[in-house]
Model the fold of this input.
Amino acid sequence: MILYEHLQVNELGHLTIGGLDTVELANQFGTPAYIIDEDVVRASCRTYRNAVQKHFGEQSYPLYASKALCFAQMYRIAAEEGLGIDCVSGGELYTARAAGFPAERIFFHGNNKTDKDISDALDMGVGTFVVDNVEELGALSCAAASRGIKQRILLRITPGIDPHTHKAVVTGNIDSKFGSAIATGQAMEIVKKAIESDGVELVGLHCHIGSQIFDIEPFEDAAKIMVSFIADIKRELGYEIKELNLGGGLGVKYTQYDREIDYAEAIEGISQIVLHACEQNGVATPRIFIEPGRSLVAAAGITLYTVGSVKEIEGFRNYVSVDGGMPDNPRYALYQSQYTALIANRAADPATFRATIAGRCCESGDLIGEGMDIQRAQRCDILAVLTTGAYNYSMASNYNRIPRPPVILVKDGKARVAVRRETYEDIIKNDVL
Ligand code: LLP
Done:
């Protein structure tokens, strides 16, 4: 096993995913390629769904934050597993609907929905809008009222939690482009406005404190603050908030140094905090939702590349260049995110070669990682980067006019294309020649 159970080494010394030889997958589908183990995605969906229903009640379900990995069949998987989804753009909504995802289970996010986004989403019958600001509230209320609808909404609220220094800085991130802060009084203002707006029905509140968080405490703190705000709304405005969406953000193991989180246990912990806080504040327990993205899909995915060159610069470092890079995985360039990588065709060999894995773009910051311990590499080797299921394909670009890799789904020992590899024709299809 390498990091996760679905990644093993076979008798040829090749890395396997979902029982399939990655060297054969690279031959069959070419590189770079994203390979996603569908059984692992489905298992994570079930873990979340079972825990959410057990601890938050039968009417609750997890909402898949689809920005993490978005393509038509992913929405189909989420629908089949009984999840709702979080969409943040017209493009995500369009993909979800094209895949037949039920509109009433869509939560439409975003801090700057255009009039067109709003009207398209209303036309689709999107179940819930998560309203970010007063301008959006006004525009949505008008658009809904003109259609004779009362649109179900949640309001995005900033509880003022800094997930990394939460103990010291309880109002740390009031300074955010998202939502309305409780501490500034803007949250109560938008609640009042929403109650008075004709075209919307305020059913609940939403907060999201961050991403790749291992500590459960900031979630619990956020839950307590939100419940206490629900009590304030009841006391000051006599209005009952029925739903509370606590966002996503639970962390994922990318390297051997990361912890593995027991998501079911985390959900149980959060539910106990909410129940207790409701009791203390004298409010009815709301229907609770959570919105995981990364932790549903990251571990399921790997990216396969072909090594092109191995440059050993004496006294400096070793560069292993691969046929992808920041266009398919911008996360090291953006956040110095850490990954685990290995030579898939010699996966059983010791990882004694310290390498900087470089992409093929025309800039030196195009790296997948630095100081990565892999097997000795040579041209034509297959390099696998693990835990790339989240925020890789969904953040991919065509920088340097490099076509995006395909997404291959592995299930029951078979592999199939879920998103085709882009072609050069795709790349110039909107150019006016
Ligand atoms: N809900 C809301 C409102 C969000 O903004 C996000 C993530 C999620 C849920 C899901 O969070 P997760 O469970 O995936 O942590 N591109 C960055 C991550 C950005 C996360 C944005 N919002 C990365 O590659 O690390």
Notes: The longest strand covers residues 301-312.
